[in-house]
Amino acid sequence: MIGRSVRLALAFALVILAAPWPAAPAPPQGKVLRLGLLYGITPTFDPASDPISRALVDGLRAHGYELGRNTILEFRSAQGNPERLPALAAELVRLKVDVLVTGATAATLAARDATQTIPIVMFNVADPVAAGLVASLVRPGGNITGLSANAAETSAKRVQLLQEAVPKISRVAVLWNSSLKAMALGFQQIEVAAPSLGVTVQSVRVSSSDEFDQAFAAIARARPGGLIVLYGPMRG
Q1: What separation, in Å, do the N-terminal and C-terminal C-alpha atoms of the chain show?
Q2: Angle between helices 85-94 and 105-114 (to 10 degrees)
């Protein structure tokens, strides 16, 4: 029999997408759920404008949980500064949340390092196995579950889209944040995919926005046929 914490984490993995769950049981009478959200970039929790936040609220309601009635939401965001994530994760653990929902790889890594007992539901994680978050997608183990994307396929598709736009492209620059593990994994996947597509890769590494001028000067000197910018938080 799986434990309550595992069942709770799996339930919230479905809730993130507002997925239907037939015959969902009502929450225990008198039980107040304390839900922790840890994001790396999104500054506020705003269901009116953010579809992920709206899906979470709708999914909670579908399972009998309503904010302000039997659910307390503790939202924390690093607002683009990944160095803040460990302290924010530790703060949520001290608040004794029942479940931690984490957006993207850096936030999930911070949550993993902060607790091995509170269930963690991740989303928007490119490759949780390569990132060291789970043992495998089939049997993740530990206290982490959730959703992931196929990073290898997505990385190859970026190069393919550039080839469609510029059929004779032979060299692509990739601008990425070397301080983030998720971006390092994304760049590695592009490196792996590029040779089979007949494209060489120029790595342009930055760790803060102060390095942009130097980075774009290097790109201009190399004169690549296209540029891929990997998305993620960065120090100012």
Answers
A1: 48
A2: 50
Confidence grade of residue 88 (pLDDT, cut at 50, 70, 90): very high
Here the tokens at position 111 are 């949550």
Report the alpha-carbon distance of residue 211 to residue 192 in Å, rounded.
26
C-alpha 148/C-alpha 11 separation (Å) is: 16
CA proximity to 221, closest of 171, 168, 160, 165? 171
User: Nearest 10 degrees: CA dihedral of 116, 121, 124, 125?
Assistant: 30
pLDDT in tens, 109-144: 999 999 999 999 998 887 788 778 888 877 888 899
User: Within 13 Å and on the Cβ side, how many CA atoms surround 201?
Assistant: 24
Query: Which among 11, 39, 13 is positioned nearest to 25, based on CA atoms?
Result: 11
Structure tokens at 153: 């396929």
CB contact set of 43 (below 8 Å; sequence gap of 6+): 77, 79
Q: 58 with 14: CB under 8 angstroms?
A: no
